[in-house]
Amino acid sequence: MKKSTIAEKRKVQGLTSNYNKTVLENGIKIVSESIPHVKSISIGVWVDVGSRDENELNNGITHFIEHMVFKGTKKRNTREIAEFVENIGGYLNAFTTKENTCFYVRILSEHLKEGVEILSDIVQNPVFDKKEIEKEKGVVFEEIKDIEDDLEEYIGDLLEYHIYYPHPLGFPIIGTRETVSKFTREKLFEHLREFYNPTNIVISAAGNLVHDKLVEYVSKFFNLTNRNGFYHMRKKPEKVSAVNYVIEKPASQSHVCIGTATYGAKDSKRDHLFLLNTLLGDGMSSRLFQNIREKYGFVYSIYSFYTIFKDSGIFGVYFACDKKNVSKAIDLVWKEFNLIVKNGIDPDELRRAKAQVKSSLLIGLESMSNRMQRLAQIELVYDGVYSDIGDIIRRIEKISPDEVQEIASEILNEERFTTIIINPAKNNMEKTYDRWRSKRNQKNGK
Fold first, then answer.
1. Which residue of 27, 76, 80, 107 is surrounded by the most CB atoms within 10 Å?
2. Sequence-ordered alpha helix ranges (H) in 266-318
């Protein structure tokens, strides 16, 4: 098979490093940052497919394929895959998100060639042995149990489901017992052929590397062709009415998660919401932590979060507390929300939030894995529009307190928010929580 040749190459001098990009003739994008003072390299093969590209019949298949590529290729068995990487002191792993799948390796700089080769093998040559498929189903069933037992993670999945369903962003990444049990070798290969095409692949790397050598090895080892020219068009999620839902499960505390759909990664308002999230519930100096934990002692853990996708996002709050304090704590959350909407933000408070965001960005650059992931997101989320960290910081610095208050007024509307509660109980039960909201509104004079 004819090797891909370079179709495009460009280099950008940034504040933090050298950014290089090459697009091969077959469509694979290669992006890298050269950091000469480190000894390691982080390399990721990113496939632009996640659980949002599934349906209710094959939900979880992307994640299952991520597992199965480690169970043997045409060249190596499971043990040989692990030993090949560990023999050179490296680390090989993978993860699946709602929008992407990443296979990555962390290695010393002298093993760039071996790192690219092992990634090419697992991505291109899985055998999907039938016995291994059935065995791995059991592994995934155990992973589902782990999630259900980790109520902080489980309630997050429930929130996303109720905010987005029937849009596939509401599907769990791992799938369900019912869908996973029906996966076959043929279905795995069908999904692989549909999505694992070079135009859907970004290879990103950061560390002590030479970009041209990376391109040379990718061109040598990655022989993917456009099997069917498939390009997946993703539908933006539609607005869904807020709901209130409770599950009663064996637990020692109540777990509470409230959230609403909001801006995606490409929306200019995302920076404002990052700052709002930081001052509300990110860290020990945040409003929610200082008030609900430090002042009232209702919770041990409380934080706000901003989960971001390409065309949507979720802003919300999570906490766990004694069942008798659930309504009180939720009232206090809304009190803090309403204070920001009504009274705005003190400039000093916003300066602290900006300092936290900037610090997080800059400290993140010390990790080659973080740099590698950032490069991939530039291609997969921002369509290859490179933003230097310095540009991002300057953009954040320009945001005013009034602009953050305006975003708060738009987002922090109680009628927009879905509320999920897991209460302690002896037996598993599910019921709607409309009655709880009705009683709370009566108490608050609504």
1. 107
2. 270-281, 287-288
All domains of the chain in start order, with CATH: 6-221 (3.30.830.10), 244-443 (3.30.830.10)
Element (H, E) at 432: strand 429-432
Calculate helix-pair angle for 401-411, 270-281, nearest 10 degrees: 90
For the entire predicted model, the pTM comes to 0.91
Amino acid at 250: P
pLDDT in tens, 99-144: 999 999 999 999 999 999 999 999 999 999 999 999 999 999 999 9
**Pairing label, strands 40-47, 101-108:** antiparallel
Question: Phi/psi at 175 (nearest 5 deg)?
Answer: 85, -165
Q: Which of 176, 104, 168, 170 is nearest to 140 (CA)?
A: 176
Catalytic (active-site) positions: 66
CA distances from residue 41 to 13, 108, 111, 434 in whole angstroms, order as listed: 19, 6, 9, 52
- Please state whether beta strands 244-249 and 101-108 pair in parallel, antiparallel, or not at all (unpaired): unpaired
Using alpha carbons, list the distances in angstroms from residue 299 to 54, 277, 289, 422: 37, 19, 9, 15
Contact in structure between 116 and 107 (CB atoms under 8 Å): no
